[in-house]
Amino acid sequence: MLLWMHLGFSLASDVLLVLTAVVSLAYLIQDHLLKNKKVTLSWLHLPSIQVLDEVGLKILTLSFLLMTIGICTGSLLAKRYWGPGWYLDIRQIWSTATWLLFAVVLLARFTVGWRGRRAALVTLVGVTFVITGLFILNYVSWTKHVATGSLT
């Protein structure tokens, strides 16, 4: 049961993070076009940069919550199956570092009012970390995570 919770929450978080990246890219494109006064009819269909920023924040917040649950359930599984030193696996470390990056982004957005381009760029960096962890770290020999889904 715990495995399915870990997989479900982690996958849902990753999907929402990709959606957050799309919204962040749309924000950056819209911002660039507005600053250069190059708004064309095709880009008029995008929401305003304020709406894109708000939607990106809401999706990122939900994704962070799901990521937190996914990491916690994964940590419980890792401790159960791998024993002492479970937290030293590169995938565990990478996931925690990525979680910390998003925690800092959300903290900055909620406390000091980070908005706009900076928030969109840092969010894209975080999503790059997630994609790297998802598609590359699972296939290296020095992780206990394996691409087949086995926990042993």
Structure report:
It is a single chain. With 152 residues, the protein is mainly α. The protein has one domain (2-139). The chain is built from 4 helices and no strands. Helix 2 (49-82) packs antiparallel against helix 3 (90-111). The longest helix has 34 residues, at 2-35. The chain is elongated, with a radius of gyration of 18 Å.
List the helices and strands and how they pair.
Layout: H1 2-35, H2 49-82, H3 90-111, H4 116-135
Helix pairs in contact: 1-2, 1-4, 2-3, 3-4
Task: Summarize, please.
The chain has 152 residues and is an all-alpha fold.
List keywords for this structure.
152 residues; mainly alpha; 4 helices; 72% helix; elongated
Rg, Å, rounded: 18 Å
Stretches where pLDDT falls below 50 for ≥5 residues?
147-152
Which structural class do the helices and strands define? mainly alpha
Molecular shape: elongated
- Work out the count of structural domains: 1
First-last Cα distance? 17 Å
How many H/I helices? 4
Share of residues in helices: over 70%
Mean pLDDT, all residues? 85
SSE arrangement, N to C:
HHHH
Strand content: under 5%
Q: How would you sum up the major sheet?
A: none
